[in-house]
Write a structure and sequence with these properties.
The protein is of the alpha+beta class. It folds into 2 domains: 236 residues, BirA Bifunctional Protein, domain 2, CATH 3.30.930.10; 103 residues, Enolase-like, domain 1, CATH 3.30.390.50. Helices cover 38% and strands 24% of the residues. It has 12 helices and 14 strands. A 7-stranded mixed sheet has the order 1-2-6-10-9-8-7, sandwiched between helices. Strands 11-12-13-14 form a 4-stranded antiparallel sheet. The chain has a 3-stranded mixed sheet with strand order 4-3-5, with helices on one face. A hairpin with a 4-residue loop joins strand 7 and strand 8. The longest helix is centred in the last third of the chain and has 38 residues. The radius of gyration is 23 Å and the shape is elongated. About 3% of the residues have low confidence.
């Protein structure tokens, strides 16, 4: 098994390098090790807007990208080590995920960490998740990749990945909340190390005789092109989102505005405005103009530019309408989270009472 270690931490460049390796490194098997700066990585079939806590992600300048494989949304930072295995695709019965997590589990056990397969697509230690993985077959080659939480910021991960399932009606795959833990505190005293030492240890353990792969200038140019044209594009990260629908309500001095949206491939396919705002002209004209518009700020602003908001929404301004369309779910998410927390507290009270 040959070895490709990426030193850069740009998630778009790293995902592009992984895709390049899958399509162009056709001989034998490859182990790729890489890290990303703070990033939310969304599964191939997920709705990006549904999976992220957008206000937190924007405030903390956390990058958001979509990967080629399915599964749930994950958080990466420099305390997280990613591994990718690329090899010839085998018969379907030989493609069980545990067959590919086994070398990683064995390497962790050799360090004194009692890692085991969860039976799904995770590696766990004493029931707490340290790794999630996914895989895909393209062109007769299999890509299996996973995360390894070593010294990641778990609080940031919890904040960034705050979906509000009650907020949306969606066809997308939902992330599953799991208890997570880092590997670094689990290492025995005599085996403590930093994440780069851990990366080198894993390389030796999984690919002990592997030859290091050096990408030539042509490969690097292709990776840069793929990173810019695909992984850094809004169309890939957001426009690939499955269909979803939501409703939200905002109160302004000029009245209440309720927005309803149905979105497919990142574009509005249906929109409705309701409320007690003072409209002089039918808002159906604005609704019609927004159909087909990408759900991003600059495009919404362009679609609304021909309309005088005073005729359609009274004193509610263009930027207010855009904010309703884009940011409404964040406020709703917080309310849902609080409701969930209160409900859990009620359950705790009931359990305490039943045990009294």
């Amino acid at each position: 098994m040959d070895l490709l270690i990426l030193s850069g931490t740009d998630p778009c460049r790293n995902l592009a390098a992984e895709e390049y390796a899958l399509h162009h490194l056709r001989q034998g098997s490859v182990l790729m090790l890489w890290r990303n700066r703070p990033t939310v990585v969304v599964g191939r079939y997920q709705n990006t807007l549904e999976e992220i806590h957008s206000a937190y992600v924007e405030r903390e300048k956390i990058q958001v990208v979509r990967r080629n494989t399915g599964g749930g949304c994950v958080y990466h930072d420099l305390g997280n080590l990613n591994y990718s295995l690329i090899l010839d695709a085998a018969a379907p019965e030989e493609l069980r995920i545990e067959a590919f997590t086994r070398p990683v589990i064995q390497a962790l056990r050799a360090l004194g960490v009692p890692a085991e397969d969860s039976g799904r697509n995770d590696i766990v230690v004493r029931g707490r998740k340290i790794s999630g993985c996914a895989q895909v077959i393209e062109g007769g080659r299999l890509l299996h990749h996973g995360t390894l939480l070593f010294s990641a910021d778990l609080e940031a991960a919890e904040q960034a990945l705050r979906p509000a399932p009650e907020k949306f009606v969606s066809k997308s795959t939902k992330s599953v909340s799991s208890r997570m833990t880092n590997l670094a505190p689990l290492l025995p005293p005599g085996r403590r190390m930093g994440i780069l030492q851990f990366r080198d240890y894993l390389a030796r353990a999984v690919a002990p005789e592997g030859q290091k792969i050096v990408l030539d200038p042509g490969a690097r140019r292709e990776i840069r092109r793929l990173a810019e044209e695909k992984y850094r594009s809004w169309e890939w990260t957001y426009g690939q989102s499955p269909q979803f629908a939501y409703r939200d309500r905002h109160r302004f001095p000029g009245g209440t505005l309720e927005t309803g949206l149905s979105v497919e491939d990142g574009r509005i396919c249906a929109v409705s405005f309701r409320g007690d705002f003072l409209s002089l002209l039918p808002v159906a004209e604005v609704e019609q103009a927004l159909r087909g518009c990408p759900l991003r700020q600059e495009d919404l602003r362009g679609a609304l530019a021909p309309f005088s908001m005073a005729y359609y929404f009274g004193t509610i301004q263009t930027e207010d309408v855009i904010r309703c369309l884009l940011d409404g779910w964040d406020r709703g998410r917080q309310a849902i989270l609080k409701t969930s927390d209160d409900a859990e507290g009620d359950k705790e009270d009931e359990r305490d009472h039943s045990n009294a």
